[in-house]
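The freezer alarm interrupted the setup, so I double-checked each line after restarting. Inputs confirmed:
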Amino acid sequence: MNPSLLPLGDLSRALDRGEARPSAVLEECLSRTARLDGKVHAFLRLTEAQARAAARASDERRARKEPLSPLDGVPVGLKDLFCQEGVETTAGSRILEGYHPPYDATVVRKLREAGAVLVGKLNMDEFAMGSSTENSAYGPTRNPWDLERTPGGSSGGSAAAVAARFVPGTLGTDTGGSIRQPAALVGCVGMKPTYGRVSRYGVVAFASSLDQVGPFAQDVRGVALLLRAIAGRDPNDQTSSLRPVPDYDADLEKPVRGLTIGVPKEYFGEGLDPAVEKSVRMGIAALEREGCAVKAISLPNSPHAIATYYLVATAEASSNLARYDGIRYGQRAPARGSLLDLYEKTRAAGFGAEVKRRILLGTYALSAGYYDAYYLRAQKVRALIRRDFDQAFAAGVDAVVSPTSPWAAFRLGEKVDDPLAMYLNDIYTVPVNLAGLPGISVPSGFTQAGLPIGMQLIGRPFEEGTLLRLARAAERALALPRRLPPLLERT
Amino acid sequence: MSIHDWEPVIGLEVHAQLLTRSKIFCSCSTAFGAPPNSLVCPVCLGLPGALPALNRSAVEMAIKAGKAFGSAIAERSIWARKNYFYPDLPKGYQISQYELPICKGGAVPVPQPDGSVRKVALTRIHLEEDAGKNVHGAAGSQVDLNRSGVPLIEIVGEPELRSAEEASEYLKALRLSLMYLGINDGNLEEGSFRCDANVSVRRKGTQKLGTRVELKNINSFRFVRQAIEHEIERQIAAYERGEKVVQETRLFDNEKGETRPMRTKEEANDYRYFPEPDLPPLVVSREWVAKVQVPKLPHERQAELVAANVPAADARTLTADARLVELHARIVEAAGPEAARRAANVVTGEVARLVNEGALDLSSPRFQPAQIAEVFRLQDAGTLSSTAAKDVLAEVLRTGKPPAQIVQEKGLSQVSDESALEAVVDAVIARSSAEVEKYKSGKKNLLGFFVGQAMKDLKGKGNPGVLNTLFKKRLE
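Predicted 3D structure, all chains:
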């Protein structure tokens, strides 16, 4: 098989064994991207020259057979939210068009140090606000399984690039489901680590107390390798954890016999597509076959998660996005009047509709006289949502299982005019961000129409290792056929 | 009704820059006067993706202030974002503390002219970052972000002050205290010590506070008095005309000596404070608080000086300047506690004069306080006469040369050796037979004449005490 089509974990082994050469893999990836990305629009820009230089350097290291990171020579794409020195970084927004950061995000530096080949920047909903990439100022990304449909969002470009085999691995961010939901909709693995597991330094902020960086790959092992490379304490991010980072890959194949899976009734209720439910139930059955105990549980406060999220996240966003004022960097609207006029015109022209909606909502939630009723109350509900999970874990549940998204990929344009329907995409993923827990989406099957479906596993804080083991067990037990998206089969 | 029927109520808020070497949330330098935007990084420029990382030494200085003023120091305080738009505020919010500040309560000791100490209560002290500076010029408005992220403490006083004079006294005492603590340079002109005043007036005898007006942009002690006085008069005049005072923020115009409106309550910013999600709560352990050393405050030093026999006036002069009191302490350290009075005399006299004339830089490494102690020692040992000691001291302050070297170069050493003086004594007695007779017959006050003759021969370098003894011995 063409090594550039291999899942990241397998590619890493092939590179270790000398069966693949980084430069050759990169050229395959670049030529596939050149051939097909006109249809998918996963990338906003490629950094081909830098990537080729990095791949050549890796060729030499690999040829010397030095002990290397498993990512050495692996092509990786970055959501356009990660600052990369000298490479335009827009966060999917018009307001940052032409902005070239003078520094690398910590995760970008760590990937470089691991020898990964950084290929380019991937499309996303503007400032990570959305669930379909339709909020990108640079046009939507399309789902490689059906070009009329969305790959999800906000990390839609990161998900689509992996599904279309443009690159074996990518990084995204997840504030309310922005890694897990697109991973589910394109049929790959995507993980949101525990809040604090991965540094946020150099990652354009949406909602600081919820944002977390995480990986995409076709396989669980690929996600494990990427996570190990990017996780860990960063003195530049004081919310990052001091806990040591385990070798996730080493324990990946360990049996899951004896682990208990909690199935929360609130996550299998009204609004869930029966095809998705059926697929996730099959995933649960597969884990049972692997020796897991299955237990019915309740997370009674989770139904309040969407309302809570849209107060906390928008409040933080209204403040985080204040810096885009046209004064120091990014786009400035021509204005001849007052300072206020400059701010208003710049922000009116620079931000898209959804971003404006959220800034307004968040500003309102923090305003004098409304703070207690909205922001403070939301924080209290947030604590209750976390407590539900804590109680389930204390009662012996090792991981909670649920659908990742209530439905498979929907048509572009289908929900774009109905924000509330769009927000429901994240009904099962948002509680995990509010609780600060790790979550992973792993493919569980396909709809009759051939669209991928994902299953979500939610773990104890910093138990990414357990989640990856369970996800790997599901992957192994389900043994889904290695299908390629029709887009690739045609060529 | 007259001005005497009204009682002013004044509360001051002071922003003091902390003397840390680096900024509060990044490692950029806090130096003043560097070329615009040369001391900046992604964090203090507020670039997308940058995050704050706390500088512990700023926290330590806030603890020091809190301990010195007797505030309660919170084991857990919370960072908050204060949101507003302005070009010198690169993130669109200032990281500050709001609901849970690091220090609560406490009081600033304000020495009174009668020697007593008044305690002016504090509401709180909190930590925050400074903004940059807008520079308006012919080329338009520009922003310098060197100051962005410099650590500040905001010291909020209770509205206990009743006149512009009291406000000025309080500010002076607070400024001096912060300088004693080594956490602020007290420089009003460079803006490292800034003051806002909340002023209202009420009928004497009433309890309810009047409408409060906030005065901003007061950057000297003279202007503090002027601004507050003007504002008190303006408010009283308004009430006496039957008008209302509007709650607003007014700017002090130091050229016209008056305040003018900046914004009213309706136009006031809603800062939308909320807990800063990029920083964990600030945890200050009891052990940390215990470890922070707090130098003595001016009124404590003053009491100590008086107890050490320094005249009260000198003690006041010394403690009014942190540098002088420190210099005095170092001289006494070298010369011993009994030198306190003499050292105070030198420091408040010759030293203070030279410092004021700009002829002496106390921070220069050339200047060694121990050399002043050495001059005292030479005088006490009889090597220097009091006149010669003055000359040597002046030379030490002017040149920084060691006193021994000056004595040698100028030939100022006093002759105290009896064997060296005996010959002169003999010569004086030999040529003054008439006076010797008179002395022996009872005119004892002629001793001065003999010593004077000997000093003349010795060109003033003889030790008068030793000469006295020698003449007495010889003539009796």
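Quick read of the result. The CA atoms of residues 309 and 341 of chain B lie 6 Å apart.
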